[in-house]
Amino acid sequence: MVLKSNVMNTKSLSDAQLVSNYISGDENSLSVLINRHQARLYGFIFSKIQDRDATEDVFQDTFIKVINTLKRGKYNEQGKFLPWVMRISHNLVIDYFRKNKRMPKFKNKGDFDIFSVLSDESPNAENKIVESQIADHVRILLEELPEDQKVVIKMRIYQDMSFKEISENTNVSINTALGRMRYGLINLRKMIDNHNISLIN
Fold this sequence. Notes:
Layout: H1 2-11, H2 15-23, H3 27-49, H4 52-71, H5 81-99, H6 115-118, H7 128-142, H8 147-157, H9 163-170, H10 174-194
C-alpha cells in the first residue's frame, strides 16, 4: 500500500519536481515524465516523419539526449521541460531529413505554414488567435533574413513552389535552393528565440 501511494504521489508532481527528483537519483520520476508526455511527443514526431519505425528511433533518441543532459547537470530549463524536450525532438527530426536527403513537405492551406516545420502541431480552435499573432511576428522577422534565403522561403511557403521551380526562377541549382531554405529556417528559428516568440502553446 505504501508503494502504491508513493507512485500516485509521484504522478501528481510537476514536471520541474520530477526532473529535480530524477537528477537526485529517483529513476521512477523519469518514467513518469516519459509516460506523461509520450503521446504528444510521439504524435509530433510522427506528424513530421510519417514513418513509424523512424518515429520510434527519433522518440528514443530524444530521451537518450534528455537523460544524458540531465545526468551531466546541463539542464537549465526550469519549468519548461516539455518545450525543451520538443525542441530536442524537432532538431532530431531535422537531422533525420538531412540524413535521408529530403526536406519536410509544406502544404499550402492559404495560411502562413512556417508552423509545419517550426511548431509542434497545427493550430486548433483555442490557439488560432495566438498563432495569428505569432504568424504576424514571423512575417516581420522573415524580412530580416538575407535576400536569397527570404526569397526561397517565400516561394516555398507562400507560393507553394517546388524546389525545381524555385531553382529555375532563381537561376540556382536545386541543392543551392535546398541549402538556402535550410539556412533560412535555421536563422528564422534563432531570431524567434531571440525575440522570445513561443511556437509551442
